[in-house]
Amino acid sequence: MPLDTQTKKIPKREYRLSFIMAVGLFLIMLALTLGVLGFTYQSSLILLDQKREYQKNLGKVVSDLVFDAQITGVQNIVNLTAEDAIFQGSRDRADQNAIVPYLRGVFYGQKETDLGFLALLSSDNKVQVSFYNELFPIEEIISKIENRRGDERRWAWVSQVASGSDPIVLVYFKREVLDNLTGRVAGHLVGGFFINSDQEIIQSIRRQVGSDFSAVVFRGNILTHSGELPGDIGRHITQSGVDLTEHGPDVHYLFGSQILTEKISDSQFHILHGYEISDEASVDQFYLISVGVAVIVILALSIVIAMLARKLFLKPIGDLVVYARRAERQESKPQLLQSPIKDFNIVGQNLANVITAFQESEKRFQDFVSVSSDSVWETDAENRYVYVSREANSGQNMDLNNIVGKKRWEIQGVDQEYSDWNDHRQTLARQMPFRNYVFRRIDPNGNIKYWSASGKPRYDQDGTFIGYRGTSRDITSEVEAQKEADKIQDQLRQSQKLEIVGQLTGGVAHDFNNLLSVVLGNLELIEEAKLLEGGFAQNLADAIKGAERGALLTHQLLAYSRQQTLNPVVVEAGSVILEMRSLLERALGELVNVKTNLRNDCNVLIDPAELENALLNLAVNARDAMPNGGELLIECFTTSLDEEYTDNIPELKAGEYVCVVVSDTGEGIAEDIKEKILEPFFTTKEVGKGSGLGLSMVFGFVKQSGGHITVYSEVGKGTSIQLYLPRVKMGKQNKKDAKEQLLHQGHGEVVLIVEDNPDVLNLVSKQIGSIGYTHLECSDSSAAIEILKTQSVDLLLSDVILPNGLNGLELILAAKEIRPDLPAVLMSGFTGNAISSKEKLPDGIEILYKPFTKIRLSEALHRALHVNKR
């Protein structure tokens, strides 16, 4: 066929292809556009539904939060008023002239929206005083409150319905008022607010939820609302709440929910929110216009694209076909006709470049995989490994022969108990992807390794499942680090717990010491006066012994809280144990065999009396754990604790320690109570047979001495308690010999007493006066300084804890600047942070611990005036 004949037929093919391309492009673009528009339309409707659901949930959450804030505020006002000392004092005296003004001040001192009702009820539940912000009588509400019983410490509601008007609803909180003398309920204090008159609450709710109107509904009545209500809103409100089975008026969405259910058990309150409907109509109109515009635009684009394709693509293709046929026929000097596309001759080169770039991209992906994961794997349809990567830089010694061909749970060394393999098998059976499935395996070298595997299913071209492809990562270091972090966190929580309990017990001991000082001192004054005879004198002696036992109890509390002042000296721990052995043997009885294993050169800087108490407490506990007898072994030796050990224990430093070990062959300590045994008042003994302070006192003494205590126990085998005390390389010091207690009379010396507790101040004044001293009194350091500047004082006797400025130790230091030679003695129930050991005291100053006897007081004053002054 001649060449020009073929050339004439090519344009007809171009026009046909242009038409087909235009129609095809139009249909494809129309389908895609309609699909996108339809998807976005449905998405818009979903978003609208989500918006409505969000508005509904937001209305419920905001309403609960606003009402909860209102309720919490009223409850706090009631609690603070009931616990106020002025109110309690007026109430105990039944002083109506003081109670009424006080409650009036409380009521009118609050915003009207914060407190709408406040009343005081008598013990028979009758209203004595009431204040409210309603403009009309509420006798029915008050009557209902008086008749309601058993609603203490919780929220409730009462209502009052007047003919021809909406109901009045009071939400109130009621709590008891106790008589401080008898501890009985002397009445009740009631506080609340009226929902129907509290516009600020509903306005705040509406403002936060952004509704067109909001209303509080109670038993078919709208108590209060904000915003303009639709005219037919009443058909959606029933006696039991809000009926939203259909939309509200044509221009509104209505959302309702019950509120105050968490605070009021029989809540019958509902919140109703309304929103104007405008979104759906706008969305429908927008998408109808969009469809019309899209059809026109797509049609125009299809025609333009077809014309451009004919000019830029189809005609050059035809020219290329003509050129190829000419080349095929080997025509001389075949020429390619000019076309807008000038580079068709390098299409092959471009394709080669594309293939090269693809290969480079694939290589880059392989390199990334090799460095970002320990291993890449594939499994077949039966979940057996068919490929596992092993890179030279992965650092993993992987036995591929033990892995390929096996399922993950069949690999040698995999721990079948560590992970939930049944759940993992079900995931694989459902052909679902999985991430970070953690399992444990013991490798061929015996090392425990933790692995995290992630994978996704793969399918062939027909959609048939052919296995999984994924990665596995060695997370052993991460797991071990997390275990170590959890261990340290547990130790920190236990340390903080014991510290808080210690602070609490120390505070209790301080107040108890002040009380015991007054009791013991007055009992001694009565005993000294010899006013009682016979059985009464014995009763008095028993009372004194009881007070002294109470003082011992507070000493144990202070030992646990580490707020006692120690008398540290360098002693040889083994010598202290040897001196106590005979005492322990007598105390433990014949059924317990006491053995010791003591090393030399175990010098420690401690209070030896506290070490003796600690050993005695541990020995008694060991005896109680061996009711049928056994063996008690006490050991003493030196050891070193390195930083690797002490880093996990707060406040413990690395170095040399003396370890005192007390071991028994008793019943042992159960694992579930081991962490509690050092807490004060915790005991496993029967009621009346133990105070629970023995081990807590040992714990406090060891910690205050800079040491550490550990407990090891096995049920049925025994318990071993180790006391680690810092070792000192010094010669030991002899313990002070006990001296005979004598009453030392004064000779009219002037003693300045500084004590903030009036009962203790009165007692000490009497005791000092009875032993021949003259005294001056004050309650704080400022007054004491003034007295020292203006009057003659021979001795300063001060409590450690003082109000308004300086503490006792600081007062003595300030007094020394005025009178450098002034003797001084400190009194203390506990020293708090002022003094932690006698090393911080100035020379010649000693502490007299409460409660103290008159003999101990006379000795302390005598030493300060005649011995320490030398």
Protein described:
- The protein has 18 helices and 28 strands.
- The chain is of the alpha+beta class.
- The strands form 7 sheets. The protein has a 5-stranded antiparallel sheet with strand order 2-1-5-4-3. Strands 13-12-16-15-14 form a 5-stranded antiparallel sheet, sandwiched between helices. A 5-stranded mixed sheet has the order 18-20-21-23-22.
- Helix 1 (3-83) packs antiparallel against helix 6 (279-328) and helix 9 (476-529) packs antiparallel against helix 10 (535-561).
Quick tags:
alpha+beta; 28 strands; 18 helices; five-stranded antiparallel beta sheet; 870 residues; 22% strand
Brief rundown of the structure:
With about 850 residues, this protein is α+β, with helices and mostly antiparallel strands. Helices cover about 45% and strands about 20% of the residues.
Radius of gyration over alpha carbons?
Answer: 45 Å
Which spans have pLDDT < 50 for at least 5 consecutive residues?
Answer: 1-14, 245-250, 347-356, 559-563, 732-740
Widest sheet: strand order? 2-1-5-4-3
Fraction of helical residues:
40-55%
β-strand percent reads: 15-25%
- Count of beta strands: 28
Q: How many strands, what sense, and barrel or not for the largest sheet?
A: 5 strands, antiparallel
Distance between the termini: 142 Å
Structural class: alpha+beta
What is the residue-averaged pLDDT? 76
Number of helices: 18
What coarse outline follows from CA principal-axis ratios?
A: flat
